[in-house]
Fold this protein.
Amino acid sequence: MNRLPSCCAPLQHHWPLPRPLPGAVLVSCAFDPAHLAPDDFQRAGVVPSASLQRSVAKRQAEYLAGRVCARAALQRLDGRDYVPGTHEDRSPIWPAGIHGSITHGKGWAAAVVAAEGSCQGLGLDQEALLDDERAERLMAEILTPPNSNAWTVASLA
């Protein structure tokens, strides 16, 4: 059906991060496990695994909100209607030619996607934002020199 589950607030199509990532699409939403309805997976067009069906409402709502965001991000990126499945290690199964990442926690979920040629990979983790000074200090430890240069060039554009 592809309707928004009752546990999810309206999707946000914005870039909440301090710097843009050209070619990437990020979609997020707030969610509340207390509002998870028995038909939310069916309503959203997301097929839960057997183990997920046995999980607590919090885990189900996290998974569902993340997959709803991922599908919306892919639709904005290239128009495809695709819900990432799940590998045995619980990581998302992205379509060929797509890099992506899903995160969720503390009532917020998000997914970011980009075409393979736009980047070598993506990672997204729901954590407290760093202030600019700390981010600049950590950048040298986290990014390779080519990535750091590309990030600097992109932020100046």
Notes: The chain has a mean pLDDT of 90. The chain is about 35% helix and 15% strand. The radius of gyration is 16 Å.
